[in-house]
User: Fold this.
Amino acid sequence: MTERAIPEATVGRLPVYLRALVELAEADVSTVSSEALAGSAGVNSAKVRKDLSHLGSYGTRGVGYDVAYLLHQIRRELGLTQHWPIVIAGIGNLGHALANYRGFAERGFAPAALVDNDPAKVGELLGGVEIRPMEYLPAIVREHRALIGVICSPPAAAQSVADAMVHAGIRSILNFAPVALAVPEGVSVRKVDLAVELQILTYYEQRKAALSVVRGRRRDRAG
Assistant:
């Protein structure tokens, strides 16, 4: 890991580069240009070169980047050279889906524990992992040395779940509940609000439709 902090925007693009590099490696491609990576990430090649320079990787003029080496660099920077056990709290429909999602384990994020307050769900097995009561959370975190928690609980319960996670020793939280969480300094929170993402898409769809109408009127006047 580099000593100097990498800009947040760059960190957000590293997983996109990683996904593209994995596909290239699986296709036995040994080198890749910044232009090709830029196409995968939806940015320009200058942005790719600047992003990768934060890793100390500059590629070779006329050749590009060594795929295997760049994969290693990005995985190391993202902390993916080790496995990260995660705790999922709130085993409703979304919690079920995440617990059964094989992509987590394939990328080094194995669901080590599932917790829920509903006695009817406690004891159920999902992907070979037993759902346990929330009050077991401190023991679970110690047992698995878990640092990452995923909140899939209803909005009204999300803050209390976050508080319980922090108290148990969780230091990074992925929050799917559509509420803002208050956490102590030193605890990282990433919020995933699917409704907000859909609303952003509808903005672009509405804009494309409006622009299409405007262009049609211009063509009509020109004709």
